[in-house]
Amino acid sequence: MLSSDFIRNIISRDVEVKKNQGRVHTRFPPEPNGYLHIGHAKSICLNFGLAAEYEGLCNLRFDDTNPSKENVEYVESIKSDVKWLGFDWGDRELYASDYFEQLYQYAVQLIKEGRAYVDSLSAEEIRDYRGTLTDPGKESPYRNRSVKENIDLFERMRRGEFKDGAHVLRAKIDMASPNLLMRDPTLYRIRWVSHHRTGVQWCIYPMYDFTHCLSDSIEGITHSICTLEFENNRPLYDWVLDELGVDCHPQQIEFARLNLSYYILSKRKLVELVTGGFVTGWDDPRMPTISGLRRRGYTPGSIRSFCERIGVAKRDSMVDLALLEYCIREDLNKSTPRVMGVLRPLRVIIDNYPKDQVEYLNAANNPEDPAMGTREVPFSRVLYIEKEDFQEIPQKKFFRLAPGREVRLRYAYFIKFVRVVKDEQTGEVVELHCTYDPKTRGGDSPDGRKVKATLHWVSAPHAVAAEVRLYDRLFLRPNPEAEKDGTDFKTYLNPDSLKTLTPCRVEPTLSGSPPGSRFQFERLGYFCVDPVDASDEKLVFNRTVTLRDQWAKIQKAQQHR
RNA sequence: UGGGGCGUCGUCAAGUGGUAAGACACAGGAUUUUGGUUCCUGCAUUCGGAGGUUCGAAUCCUCCCGCCCCAGCCA
């Protein structure tokens, strides 16, 4: 076993002592009320990973007990995201709503045993009766209704004789419990809402605490893994199963949910970003959703690797975004073809290059992997280079193109600066004139002369226009939710999280690239063809992540000096 | 101020009485036709704090401090 964490320790021990006959059966139980995000990926990798490691099974179970917030769009997105991440639930696509009848019968059993009652207090009254953190609650006047009356009322609740909120079914536990969840928790409420799967079949719906443990039990789950905030619910989880005397009593184990710096992983807040138009949708490449990361160009493997590296523990933590970026670079570096594209084009004229000549130069598709072959890149008298690769008055440690300098054009020639042409009005650099050394074809100098920089470039007449979207972190602060003064998290939205550049110039091999295809633009970063907005006529690239950038660090250090 | 959890490097995280793994980040250096990659090197005499037990403590005990969760007919 590669990784060791407290959950795997528990399960290993259980398997060793043949608990559950040595069987391991987990489940991933999303509520279909939003899209999955990278925090869910942690749970998915954990639950499906455990099942795989211990040769067990993992169910996909939708926890769909609150029809007013759930819908099929979410169900479909969740299925496709889990699948995309590389996991398979076989024929075990399950729904808590499939157990509604069974759950109802369990509730009846609880009533018959005198462990549940129909309460007719209003929601506000129930809140008042619950007490506070320090004061015990008091018992509802309806708490001692007879079993017969409770059964009658509960049946009529099901039949639809009452309005929303008229009655609820409550467990009869202990109104003085120091654990508020044990103060007669609600088990069923009346909701005249159509359910995305059961339609109008039901007007009463079971609550999470009643549903979850029993669904686990029904499915034969051995280890029910959830996040820390459910730790308080565990006594209730166990209470329900114990009172009902079910055969299968899974063990609930809680771990800390993921927090990622410069992002937000609260479903409620992500919904807010989507509905408020702060992003273009759930799959906006700036979103930490699985669909957003996918559109951004992240690979399933990189996300799985990330989830392995962050580990599993019980302490609240904030994982550095840099780790996620490390994982995607690591994956893409090995697998992605190199290509040249100029984001902010600056025209360069090679004065001594024959006017109508075109040469095709050989370029490696991936220096990391010769098996990926080579391609021919056209070179001509007029080229584009990156604006930031020229400085008229070079700053310290800048060793790209500048007056008097010679640099290499990748896979092409050494070129030497001749003169700069500026806009008379603005003083802006509009064009460069250079000369090339024909003896350096391919990028090597026969006289062994060295050059300090290699630039990427594109032949102007052959270049293909493209739109490039530069994405950056969504928030300015590492933890936008933690600002104590009550500031709204949206205050810290990064105004530069998206920069759209157009027209950019990319090498001709890129025309017609299929949606979703990934490339490394040399010296810039990893990009993928946007699966939504790109078309045959229009190339659109999303920047997945930049390359590590030593030069950017030097510049930053110089600024701070 | 009730109850339940958690505190090990900047960030994650192993460690379960025998003398602080690993990863990311960071800092140097080597290689390099991507200021990329790769490769070396460095990076917690110390585990929230204070006492105690022990030959020996991050691990056991006591007290203290800090952070998170719970008062939905949400999950």
Helices, strands, pairings?
Elements: H1 6-16, E1 25-28, H2 38-53, E2 57-62, H3 72-84, E3 93-95, H4 100-112, E4 116-119, H5 123-130, H6 147-159, E5 168-171, E6 186-190, E7 204-206, H7 208-219, E8 223-227, H8 234-244, E9 251-255, H9 267-275, H10 290-296, H11 300-310, H12 321-335, E10 338-339, E11 341-342, E12 345-350, E13 359-364, E14 374-379, E15 382-386, E16 406-409, E17 414-422, E18 429-436, E19 454-455, E20 457-459, E21 464-471, E22 498-506, E23 518-521, E24 525-529, E25 540-546, H13 550-560
Helix pairs in contact: 2-11, 7-8, 11-12
The chain binds one RNA strand of 75 nucleotides through helix 5, strand 6, helix 7, helix 12 and strand 19.
Largest pleated sheet: 7 strands, mixed
Q: CA-to-CA gap between the ends?
A: 48 Å
Overall SS class: alpha/beta
Radius of gyration: 31 Å
Strand order of the largest sheet: 10-23-24-25-21-22-11
Would you tell me the overall average pLDDT? 96
Number of helices: 13
Oligomer: single chain
Q: What would the principal axes of the Cα set say about the shape?
A: elongated
Strand content: 15-25%
Percent of residues in helical segments?
Answer: 25-40%
Which segments are poorly predicted (pLDDT under 50) over 5 or more consecutive residues?
none
* DSSP summary, beta strand count: 25
Describe the structure.
The protein contains 13 helices and 25 strands. The chain is α/β, with parallel strands linked by helices and 561 residues long. α2 (38-53) crosses α11, α7 (208-219) packs across α8 and α11 packs across α12 (321-335). The model has no long low-confidence stretch (mean pLDDT 96). The structure holds one RNA strand of 75 nucleotides.
